Amino acid sequence: MIRRVGIVGAGSMGGAIAGLVASAGLEVVLLDVRGDDEPNAPAQRGLERAVSNRAFLDPDAVGRVTVGNTDEHLSLLADCDWILEAIVEERETKRAFFRSLIDVVGSDTLITTNTSTFALASLFPEEAASWRERFFATHFFNPPRALLLTEVACLPEADRARFDWFVRFLERRFGRRALVVRDSPGFVANRFGIYSLALAIRLTGEIGLTVEEVDALTGPLLGRPRSATFRTIDLTGLDILVLGTGSLQESTGDDYSLPPWVRRLFDEGHLGDKTGGGFFRRDGDRQLSLDVETGTYRPYREPEIPGLAEVHSQPFPERLRAAIRLPDPYGAYVRALLGGTYRYVLEKTPDVAVDLPAVDRALEWGFGWAAGPYRQMSALGPDLVAELIASADHGEPALLTRARKHGGFYPEGGVLEIASDDVIPLDAVSTAGRDRQARVWAELERRGVYDLGDGVVAVRVSAIDQLQELINSATRATWPQALALVPRLEGLGYPYGRMLELAEAGDWQGVEDVVAGVRRGILALAESGIPFVVVLDGQVRGAATTCALWADRTVAYVTSVLGFPELAAGVPPLGSVTGLLVRGVTIPGIPAAGGATTGEDRPTSEPVGLQWFSPAQAVSIPSAARAQRLGVLSPGDVVSLDRDGLLETARAVGATLASSVRARPVKLPALGEGGQTSLRTLVTEITAQANLPPATREVWEQAVAHLAGGVSIAEALAHEGEAWTRALRDGEVRARLQTVVREATARRR
């Protein structure tokens, strides 16, 4: 079991990993070198940088991190279950650090390195023979918040059961796309990604293109990120590239060389955005670019490549094939880049990867390629790939010969096996689990309804006023035992636009009809004959948060932003107040307004879960983890870092709920004097902060008075709906609500 993690090296990578680990609920010891004045200053600065860079998926998790320095606090690592090294990418420096741990770490402690260019075996200290079974590589990509790839490798003597457990731990606890790779320099992603990047740079001067032209050719045209080649280097730092290519060239003996004009830029300290400019820079209002031939800066030149616009209009991978046929020198550049990259990948894959899809996923997950090299080569066909490689003046690699024999790298739904001439099922490869999860998400988006298995059916929710129809349709068609509702809602998810338009036109019957549709949707949640799980991810304020209040359970990605922006306009969303009162009698463990905790012996005179329901707190709750601490989500809900696996988790939760008894009340609790006072105080706070006129305040006070009397859920929702309609009669309320909706929609986009 891993409960406490020691991270050594508080640079951009170490600090970011600390934020990730702490956000997963684990304690972290973050160490760096001793500072000159303040001993812990380097580690503290790393922690502060991680906070400012939003490395903490749960903003409150920073309290789980303890900082220190390696001179005085190395002993803190003795109590850690996992120690991760993230210091400078220098072989001997890393080896020296590992030797310093020999007398510190426990006999069961996992030790991993975040190296990006060195083989694991080359870093292992010979004096630590007992570590060989628990010494792993964990190569995180930066920033971990956005790039989910983590390459994982072990030594031949590793405890495979423990290694396999650790890989699953990285996936499920931290949401990593853990890619098992061979122990080789640079592993897979950097080995191939940096090679292609270095080749793209060398070809720039050899073929005689400008940096602008190369970026136009090596971005989305080839299925790569918009920042392409030189803009990417400016963003990440030329020093990082120089260090990486140097380490890889030293470790592999392969050609990762950079041309003299790039080295000169590095020597002059022009490292990219971090130094005010690299290949591109600004001079006042002018955008400047590096002239490859002269090594000086000149005004930016918009590239003019014949036929490029037409090629861009084609879908990928047809675009890839068309790019090869661009007129020279541009087509020549594309052919040389692809041919050289493919040749290197084909030759080195047996040394670095466990299967071909792992190569594709490494470049897709780590470098943002739309399709990895083997998927690209499959799209082009082995014959054309052979031509590209031949044009690069190289012989035909063995893997390509085998692909020509079988009709491609992914023949008939399978994939070529690296170590044999066999074709194996895709379900047998290392990335099968993550690939399956991606397919499920894609199918849900395409169909709107998807059978997750175990009697659980996922339903994509695009409108809260259509919930009744969606649930009825899904249950009639699939006969599920539990539902997983996945809100994908525009703006705030309530039909405020239609309501406001009708109100401005004076069509109050129309407003009432819209409200009735919303009320029926929420009532469908309340009266659902089967349990349901709500799956939250992203900006889920408004109707999605309301759905969570009514859910039997919620599965939420940790960074999901919940809340009710409508409260800023003095309008509690329909179903929210009733939903909170229902939760108070069905879900133990939600804090009451006075701070007490609900349970079976809780009196019904005090409303629960309302202490957070005010504009000050409830407009926007920055993480699902905080929402759970506030009581917006219940203690039994799942807050996860595994974004890919949300539907899989929902399936497991839904399958458990299918055999349980739903604790839905027939009526709301009859609140005593104290409870009614709390509700009135809440409404007064909401309406006062919104500065609503007295008449509108009275509307909500009357609605709350009805809710406090032990009415049925249907009656309570009817009272809320009536208050909604009456509040919209106030022009100022409509104006404020319009502003809120506009801002929420813009934020989501």
Could you give the order of strands across the largest sheet? 3-2-1-4-5-6-7-8
What's the count of strands? 19
Helix content range of the residues, please?
40-55%
Q: Name the CATH superfamily assignment of the largest domain.
A: 2-enoyl-CoA Hydratase, Chain A, domain 1
What is the highest CATH level, the class of the largest domain?
Alpha Beta
CATH fold-level assignment of the largest domain: 2-enoyl-CoA Hydratase, Chain A, domain 1
Task: Give the overall form.
Answer: globular
- The tally of helices reads 30
Structural class: alpha/beta
What does this protein look like?
With 749 residues, the chain is of the alpha/beta class. The protein folds into three domains: 4-180, NAD(P)-binding Rossmann-like Domain (Rossmann fold), CATH 3.40.50; 189-427, N-(1-d-carboxylethyl)-l-norvaline Dehydrogenase, domain 2; 443-748, Alpha-Beta Complex (2-enoyl-CoA Hydratase, Chain A, domain 1). Helices cover 46% and strands 12% of the residues. It has an eight-stranded mixed β-sheet, sandwiched between helices. Strands 14-15-16-17-18-19 form a six-stranded mixed β-sheet, sandwiched between helices. Helix 19 links the parallel strand 15 (456-461) and strand 16. Helix 6 (189-207) packs across helix 9 (238-252). The longest helix is centred in the middle third of the chain and has 23 residues, at 330-352. The chain starts with a strand and ends with a helix. Mean pLDDT is 90; it is low at 588-608.
Helices and strands, with pairings:
Elements lengths: L3 E5 L3 H12 L3 E6 L8 H12 L12 E5 L12 E4 L5 H11 L8 E4 L6 H4 L11 E6 L8 E6 L5 H15 L2 E4 L8 H19 L3 H7 L12 H7 L1 H15 L7 H8 L12 E4 L2 E5 L6 E3 L8 H5 L5 H7 L5 H23 L3 H12 L5 H8 L1 H10 L6 H9 L7 E3 L6 E3 L6 H16 L1 E5 L2 E6 L5 H12 L3 E6 L8 H9 L3 H19 L5 E5 L6 H8 L2 E5 L18 H11 L28 H4 L5 H7 L7 E3 L5 H12 L15 H17 L4 H14 L5 H15 L3 H18 L1
Parallel strand pairs: 1-2, 1-4, 2-3, 4-5, 5-6, 7-8, 15-16, 16-17, 17-18, 18-19
Antiparallel strand pairs: 6-7, 9-10, 10-11, 12-13, 14-15
Helix pairs in contact: 1-2, 6-9, 6-13, 6-14, 13-16, 16-17, 19-21, 20-21, 20-30, 21-29, 22-23, 27-28, 28-29
